[in-house]
Specification:
Blueprint lengths: L11 H12 L4 H7 L3 H4 L1 E4 L2 E4 L7 H14 L1 H10 L27 E2 L2 E2 H21 L12 E5 L6 H9 L9 E5 L4 H8 L7 E6 L6 H18 L5 H11 E5 L2 H7 L6 E3 L16 H7 L1 H20 L6 H15 L4 E7 L6 H13 L17 E3 L11 H6 L6 E8 L5 E2 L2 E2 H18 L3 H6 L7 H4 L7 E8 L2 H22 L10 H14 L3 H5 L3 H13 L2
Parallel strand pairs: 5-6, 5-7, 7-8, 8-9, 10-11, 10-12, 12-15
Antiparallel strand pairs: 1-2, 2-15, 3-4, 13-14
Helix pairs in contact: 1-4, 4-14, 6-12, 7-12, 7-15, 9-10, 12-13, 13-20, 14-20, 15-20
Bound molecules: 6-O-phosphono-beta-D-fructofuranose.
């Protein structure tokens, strides 16, 4: 798809939004006081998620103008193009079809893209992953000594790690007893060394997860893991014994099944996917095999159903009630009109502790771009830094800056009503106490505390200014019944589509990631110098050369 992006800054909606912003004085206290229907009008149901947008710095006019902007830049058309399988990943000339990964079996009309029966292929791989997961979970799959698997070690990085580890952590209550999954990602050898510590090789299964099967970190870690396995098992230095150990203790997930075979993993033990699944959009593909083993195929299918429910909402709900659309547009409002540089995601659910890290790749690898999909420079600011930590820990660390700093930091608060562990402290429901913080924080951020209110507490006049909270700090509250596989899928899909909306408004290809290539290439070029090659060291720029020389002098 090579159509030109519509430059959002030239639209009449953009112009109107600029004018609107210049006359708007955010006043959440006043807006709520004057408009008893605001909370209800700006709260939405999205599958199992209740999403309250009312504490954002918008009026009805802002929302209407943002929706007009979406219309003028063609968000809906671009979405339909994506769903049809057009090559909206322009710089890689690929379709973008992560939504196809979660279409239910038998969905009609069938999705055929570039001559490929996508639905058939997706269901085929899903069935293979499910059958394998069942074998591992039931103990039918055994290692070389005939013992069942107790630990799965997923080796992957970026999208081949962040999704599975985040989801595994989030869905811990669904993990089968007696099974554990560990995740190795970093090429720092510490990572592998620590993750295999204490493992019994006879009950360990490695999953090498790499879309390209060419990623230096993953292949290096896979070789280290293979060496560890042979050594720990005491495998004789004999090809067939070594192959047998690999066959029983290694499987792979990749789009490059030829490279999987070259590594020594039997293609029968490899699970494929396709180039139209971006790494950061792949947790719901075979990349989620470790998760499927841990929680089981049924729960994995529930996870996919959660994604699909949000896909359906995004594709079919009218714009005024379309939650991903509205949230994506709010982000545009904050970045391009109110000057926000960052966006906090604050789960009030400890099991979601890796969700902000997951979202960093999803959002920042997708929208950290300076050129549009037609190669022209962007005409406005793109992308924001996503970050966060679970509450309440964050409250005791960085919330000070969100409450009283000079920067505008829109924040999403995510909570579930029913905890997996409903503990009591005497008579006190501890989770309810926890959620009191979730409710109180957005209230404090929105409405603040005036100088008069501070004085009324008897505060010494000299410190009144320090205790004033300005309020008008925007938040979105997301509340789900409980953290089920489906709810997790819904949350992920929500943020995927928010990211998509922003990318379309900015006219960028949210599905390539050329920005990570240069560093990878230079690491390979610098490697000989770091290994002590004098000519390679000489070829470096002065700063890099002196740093490497220092490193070499520090080596024991
Ligand atoms: O370096 C960026 C990246 O290409 C990500 O987009 C991707 O998720 C990660 O590397 C891992 O890639 P692969 O799955 O091919 O090993």
């Amino acid at each position: 798809m090579s159509t030109q992006p519509i430059d959002a800054t030239t639209t009449s909606a953009w112009q109107a939004l600029s004018e609107h912003e210049s006359t708007l004085t955010p006043d959440l206290r006043g807006w709520f006081a004057a408009d008893p229907g605001r909370a209800e009008r700006l709260s939405f149901e999205l599958a199992d998620l209740h999403v309250d947008l009312s504490k954002n710095l918008v009026t009805d006019e802002t929302v209407a103008l943002l929706l007009r902007l979406a219309d003028e830049v063609g968000v809906a058309d671009r979405l339909q193009a994506m769903l049809r399988g057009e090559h909206i990943n322009v710089t890689e000339d690929r379709a973008v079809l992560h939504t196809a990964l979660r279409r239910p079996a038998g969905a009609r009309p069938a999705l055929v893209v570039d001559g490929q029966d996508v639905d058939h292929d997706v269901q085929e791989v899903l069935a293979k992953v499910a059958a394998f997961a069942d074998k591992v979970r039931s103990g039918e799959w055994t290692g070389v000594t005939g013992k069942r698997v107790a630990t799965v070690v997923n080796i992957g990085i970026g999208g081949s790690d962040l999704g599975p580890v985040m989801a595994y952590e989030a869905l811990k209550p669904y993990v089968q007893d007696g099974l554990e999954v560990r995740f190795v990602s970093n090429i720092d050898p510490t990572d592998l060394a620590e993750k295999v510590k204490g493992l019994d090789p006879t009950t360990t299964l490695f999953i090498v997860a790499s879309k390209t099967f060419g990623t230096l970190e993953t292949l290096t870690n896979a070789r280290l893991a293979r060496d560890w396995l042979w050594e720990q098992l005491g495998t004789p230095d004999d090809e067939s014994a070594r192959n047998e150990a690999v066959a029983k203790h290694f499987v792979a997930v990749s789009t490059a099944l030829d490279k999987v075979a070259a590594f020594g993993i039997d293609p029968a033990n490899a699970f494929g996917f396709w180039d139209w699944v971006g790494g950061r959009y792949s947790v719901d593909s075979a990349i989620g095999t470790s998760l499927a083993i841990a929680i089981g195929p049924d729960a994995f299918r529930d996870f996919l159903a959660g994604f699909h429910a949000v896909d359906e909402h995004f594709a079919t709900t009218p714009a005024e009630r379309n939650v991903p659309l509205l949230m994506g547009l709010l982000n545009v409002w904050y970045v391009n009109f109110l000057g926000a540089h960052t966006h906090a995601v604050l789960p009030y659910a400890q099991y979601l502790h890796r969700f902000p890290a997951y979202l960093q790749q999803l959002t920042m690898e997708s929208n950290g771009k300076s050129v549009r999909w037609d190669g022209e420079a962007v005409t406005t600011t793109t992308g924001e830094v996503f970050w966060g930590e679970p509450g309440t820990n964050g409250q005791h660390a960085f919330y000070q800056l969100i409450h009283q700093g000079t920067r505008l930091i829109p924040a999403d608060f995510i909570a579930v009503a029913n905890p997996a562990h409903p503990l009591k402290d005497g008579d006190v429901d501890v989770h309810a106490l926890f959620l009191a913080n979730y409710f109180a924080q957005t209230k404090a951020l929105a409405f603040g505390k005036t100088a008069d209110e501070v004085r009324a507490e008897g505060t010494d006049e000299a410190i009144v200014p320090a205790r004033v909270f300005s309020g008008n700090r925007p938040t979105t509250s997301i509340l789900a019944p409980s953290l089920t596989p489906s709810v997790l899928g819904q949350l992920i899909a929500l943020y995927e589509h928010i990211t998509f909306v922003q990318g379309v408004v900015w006219g960028i290809d949210s599905f390539d990631q050329w920005g990570v290539e240069l560093g990878k290439k230079l690491a390979l070029e610098v490697a000989p110098a770091v290994q002590g090659d004098a000519t390679a060291l000489d070829a470096q720029d002065p700063s890099t050369k002196s740093l490497i020389a220092k490193y070499l002098s520090l080596r024991a």
